[in-house]
Specification:
Elements (H helix, E strand, L loop, with lengths): L14 E5 L8 E5 L3 E2 L6 E9 L5 E7 L7 E2 L1 E7 L5 E8 L7 E9 L7 E9 L1
């Protein structure tokens, strides 16, 4: 379970340092945020994430506005190098059904026995 100490900071929409753990035994894994229910439909979302995705690994983002019943792939809109280790990715998704109110995100990660992808920060906006 994620928790935060900052006022107005939701650990479900803003977290740091998610690593693929146990990659020596299993080179794939997924991180799924908790559900955030809103009072009105969510038509689209934008995710801002600092990640490290070494060559030979992958990290794919998906979004859901129906609580995870369906997952829709997110598209990379822009990238910006932060430093030698981290790159900020901006990903977007316009949902097929704009009436959904239960938002979740999923990151599917694939590594190998030597290297693995990492997520350093995550933030999101909804519209």
């Amino acid at each position: 379970m994620f928790s935060g100490t900052e006022a107005n900071d939701s650990p479900a929409l803003n977290f740091k340092d998610v690593n693929l753990i146990g990659y020596l035994n299993n080179t794939t894994g997924a991180y799924i945020t908790r559900e955030n229910e809103l009072t009105q439909g969510v038509e689209s979302t934008k995710v801002y994430s600092q990640m490290n995705i070494p060559s030979g690994t992958s990290l794919n983002w998906f979004a859901s506005n129906d609580g995870g019943a369906t997952w829709e792939p997110m598209s990379i809109a822009t990238t910006r190098e932060i430093d030698q280790e981290w790159t900020e990715y901006t990903l977007t998704r316009t949902f097929a059904d704009p009436s959904g109110t239960k938002v979740r995100y999923k990151a599917e990660m694939t590594g190998n026995n030597l290297v693995y992808p990492r997520i350093h920060t995550l933030g999101a906006t909804l519209s």
